[in-house]
Amino acid sequence: MSVDTHRQRHTRLLPVLGIGFGLAVAIGNTIGAGIFRTPGEVAAQLPSNELFMAAWIVGGLYALLGAIQMAELATMLPHSGGQYVFSRYALGEYAGFIVGWSDWLSTCGTTAAVSLVVGEFSAALFPALTNAQTAVAVTISIVFALAQWKGVREGSVVQTTTSALKGSAFAALIVAAFALGTGGGAASTTPPGGVALFTAFVLSLQAVIYTYDGWTGVIYFSEEVERPDRDIPRSLIGGVLAIIATYVLVNLAFLYVLPVSALAGRPFAASDVVRALVGELGTPLFGALTIVSLLSAINSNHLMASRVLFAMSRDGLMSPVFTRVNAGGTPTMALLLSAAVAFLFIVFGRTFSTVITILAFFFVANYALSFLCVFVLRRREPQRRRPYRAWGYPWTTALALMGSIAFLAGAIAGDTRNSLYALLLLAASYPGFRLLKSST
Questions:
Q1: What is the fold, at CATH topology level, of the domain defined by 12-439?
Q2: Which of 175, 278, 287, 354 is deepest in the core (most CB within 10 A)?
Q3: Domain extents for the chain?
Q4: Maximum Cα interatomic distance, the chain, rounded to a whole number of Å
C-alpha cells in the first residue's frame, strides 16, 4: 500500500448513512427544550389562539423555504461540514472560515448547554444529585462522545434510537392531552391591532424560528449519505415537515388543555400542561420528558461539531491532524477536540455563556450567507450538475434570504451590546484566519 493510499484511507469518511439517519438527526437536533419554553413567550405576545398558532405555522413555512435552498446546495456540493462547505466554495476561504469557526464553537457550546439542562433536571428528579449537576452534565456529554468513537454506524444507531425515544415521548404527550384534556382551553382574547400587533407577531416569530433551528442536521454528513441525490432532499424537507407537524400538534394539545392566557409568560408551559393532566405527578413526568427529549441533541451536536472541524482541516484552515478518520468512519481527533471544548463550556458555563450569546449572531448570519450562495452559484456555474433544484427559485430563495436579513436585524436591535461584541469578534477573526492559514 502506497503512502498516499494509506493517507486517503485514514482521512476518508464512509458513505453508509440513509434517510432514517437524516430524519433522526433533523428531529433529534431540533425538537428539545425550546418547544417547552417558547409557547409561553409566544402566548404572552399573542393572546389569541389563531395568532398563536399562526406564528408556529409561519415559522415552519420559513424553515421549509430554507430546506428547499439547502437541498440544492447540499446535493450540488455533497461534502460533510455543514454550511461552512457552501460559504467557502461560493464566497471564498475567509467567509468559509467565519461560518465554520462560529458554527463549530456554537455547536460545542450547544452540547454543553443541553448537557447542563439535563444535569439540572436530573437533580430535580433525584435530589441526591443536587450538588452534582455539573458532574452529570460532563458525564452525559462524555458518554455520547464515546458512543460515537467506534464508528459512524454506531453513532447513527444512537441518533436514531434517541430520536425515536423523543418522538414516542412527544406522541404520548399529544395523545394524553387530547384524551385527558377537556377542551376547556379554547378561550382567547383579541390583541390590539396595527403596529402593536405587527411588532408582537415579529417578536413571536423570532422566538419560534429559534425553536425550529436545527433542521439542517443532515448537511453536516452529506458525503456520508449513501444516496445523497435522493436522501438529502428527503431528509431536509421530510425532517422539516415532521417538525412542523410535531410543533403544531403539541401547541394544539397545549391549547386543548389550558387557555392561551394560562400559557402566557410561563417559563415551561409544557410543565403546566402536564400538571393540569395528572396533578403533582406532572412535575417528575415533565422532568423525565425533558431529559429524554434532550439526549438526541447531545449526540447530534457531537456528530456535527466533529464534521465541521474535519472539513475545515481538510481544506487547510485548521491543523491536518483533525482529518484523521478511524476504520469506523469517525474523525476521532476532531471528535476529541470538540468534546474537550464542550467540556470546557460545561465546567466554565457562566463564563462562556456570553460567548454563546455572541456566537448566536453568527448563526443567524450563516443562514443568510448560505441563501446568498444559491444566487452566487446559479449565476457563476449555471451548467453545474444540480440533482435537486430549489423549487420556486429565485423567489423562494429571495424570501429566505430577506427573512434571514430581517431576523438578523431584529436580533441586533434586540441585543445591541452583544451584537457589538460580535462585530469586534468578526474584526479580530481575520488575523486569526491568516495565522491559522499560514501554520497549516
A1: Amino acid/polyamine transporter I (1.20.1740)
A2: 287
A3: 12-439
A4: 74
